[in-house]
Amino acid sequence: EKGGFEYFMLKEIHEQPKAYRDTMLGRIDEQGEKVILPELKLTPDQIMNIRNIQIIGCGTAYHAGLVGRNVIETLVRIPVETDVASEYRYRSPIVSPDTLVIVVSQSGETADTLAALREAKANGAHVLAITNVVGSSIARDADDVIATLAGPEIAVASTKAYTSQLIAFYLLGLYLAEVRGTQTPEAVKEMIQAMQALPEQLDMMLEQSESIKAYAEQISHHEHLFFIGRGLDFAVAQEGSLKLKEISYIHSEAYPAGELKHGTLALIEDGTPVIALVTQESVLEKTVSNIKEVSARGADIMVITYEEHAATLLKSVDQVFVIPKTLPLLSPALAVVSLQLLSYYASLALGNDVDKPRNLAKSVTVE
Ligand code: F6R
Q1: Staple partner for 112: which of 70, 85, 117, 177, CB 3.0–4.6 Å?
Q2: Per-residue pLDDT, 343
Q3: 112: Cβ below 6 Å to ligand 1?
């Protein structure tokens, strides 16, 4: 059942290339030029009228929503908010019939997300669910469903469900952009081609997964550490931090790289591990100057970036982990996998039950 892997989590990490392919299957035309989402009831007219989008989820699904916000705002230029479901419900969200609410849930049974969905529907919004379980309560209650085809996820720590949710957001973002005409056909095609390359790029990364093991063992001796990044790198940092806390029980915090000096820098001491994500090239120089700030305070820095920046970055950091080159919007789908592996190997080094972390359940059906 674990297919030769020691834990379900590692098996599921390795299933991601397939999950990417399966989630894209039948949703891209034969020429590789357009996204087609035949399952959507949302009409082109309704899409033209969307005024705002709200994305709701819990935990890892919320983190996928943070990426989704950036993707949709960039591609479609519609304002998007992302909320944690238990907060959304009680903040009197501003919803109208022109609001598209997207709920994200692997299990489709999370109580807070389901309640938020019902709240949004009662307020007149069109609700689209991105879920991995098509027969779930959330899928049943939503007006529309985009199924992620990651297959059953057993490990409590979500991996392939999260990355398939990213693929769903890329597809949805492109589809909305096609309907609203906000991207050129060339730009759409370029992104589709880059998406189709992801499974193979991920296979390459997974072949080198041992290289992150030594670093994971090194950080497993620390009590706290930081993840930093800007833009989508910050979104991935938040997911990486959650994953590490969940299964290794090492305390960590994800911080926007530019925000450290507004307080958090006080916690950086000699030897504090800092993991910096540097894939967003439009802000690369800015992140590098933040890396220098933490380095000057003695932090032990590991950077996740592209090959072409490795040599330069190695002048100011201790270690570099290289990921395959892709478009800025797509980098989370690759970068996060190195953080999944990092938390897996840290948890393993500490002798924890990787698949069943203490105090946590796979599906949270209480509020
Ligand atoms: C983290 C994790 C949780 C879930 C969250 C939402 O690895 O698994 O944070 O993501 O409980 O669950 P779903 O997606 O089933 O609504």
Answers
A1: 85
A2: 98
A3: no
Global confidence as pTM: 0.97
Cα(294) to ligand 1 centroid in Å equals 31
Task: Kindly give the distance from the C-alpha atom of residue 59 to the centroid of ligand 1, in angstroms, as a whole number.
Answer: 5
- E runs forming strands in the chain: 52-57, 80-84, 99-105, 126-131, 144-147, 224-229, 251-256, 273-278, 300-306, 319-323
Q: Is the CB of 61 under 6 A from ligand 1?
A: yes
Q: Which residues contact 198 (CB under 8 A, 6 or more apart)?
A: 17, 20, 167, 326, 330, 333, 334
pLDDT score recorded for residue 366? 81
Task: With a threshold of 0.95, tell me whether the complex ipTM lies above it.
Answer: yes
Is the Cβ atom of 280 under 6 angstroms away from ligand 1? no
155, 8 contact by CB (below 8 A): yes
301 forms bridges with which residues in the sheet? 274
Nearest ligand 1 atom to the CA of 131 is 14
- Quick check: is 362 catalytic? yes
pLDDT at 362: 85
Which residue ranges in the chain fall short of pLDDT 70?
A: none
Predicted local confidence at residue 1, as pLDDT: 85
Report the atom number in ligand 1 closest to the C-alpha of 138: 16
